[in-house]
Amino acid sequence: MSVYVVGDIQGCYDPLRYLLDKVGFEPGPDQLWVAGDMVNRGPDSLHTLRFLKSLKKNCTAVLGNHDLHLLAVAADIRRIKKKDTLTQILKAPDCDDLIDWLRHRPLLHHDKDHNITMVHAGIPPIWTLKQARLYARKLEAELQADDYKDFLRVLFKTDKFHSMETALSRRAKLKMTASYLTRMRFCDEFGELDLDNKSAKPSSGFAPWFDFPNSPMFKEKIIFGHWAALEGETPHKNLFALDTGCVWGRCLTALCLDDYSTTSIDCC
Hints:
Blueprint: E1 3-6, H1 13-23, E2 31-34, H2 45-54, E3 59-61, H3 65-74, H4 87-90, H5 95-103, E4 108-111, E5 116-119, H6 129-144, H7 148-155, H8 170-183, E6 186-187, E7 193-194, E8 207-208, E9 222-224, E10 239-241, E11 251-256, E12 261-266
Parallel strand pairs: 1-2, 2-3, 5-9, 9-10
Antiparallel strand pairs: 1-11, 4-5, 6-7, 6-8, 11-12
């Protein structure tokens, strides 16, 4: 049995299937992990979700910011944006089942056998792995509850805080948790986020979330996506950046946890 991990698919269904064929993925003996952003911006989010859902226990996918956006759009909490490609899902006869499956995905996955953790964006330097897993479970519980739409309204309400210190209420802290796990690129040593910078170079006072030597995360093995500007490269051997820009016409990459080798296909 092999475990293959892919980064941001973003509705690029055909490249995903070509990549899985290339690595010889076999549902059943093999496992597929997805580091978030399963949908949006690409041409076929509907078949992407249907395929991942069809894999059942052979697929472990964490939620990314585009996935949370879809949940909010489906709940009539957010409007579709100009560049969104979500209409196919929203009009599908199995839309409710797909949305239900999506909102029951985790925000963080830790695998004891491989001693590795997968998130969409990252884990801030103010947390230990134990804390990250605890906060993720609390966030997941809100999204999986019967009244999850009430929480989605809080999650997508416009608030002016970018750190745990300024997030005072319980739900505000969970909203901050979602920002860390699904939107973070740059932060400072106290966990304050710079959410405007999507490049690979930090603004003054900030650094990539994984570049703080005193962070408990510095020695953890972590898989993440979200950051296409990195082009799959980080300065740390224990980090695996898997957003290689498929939806932008670059490539889709799979990481094999047998030997940590990568396989990519062009998505031009």
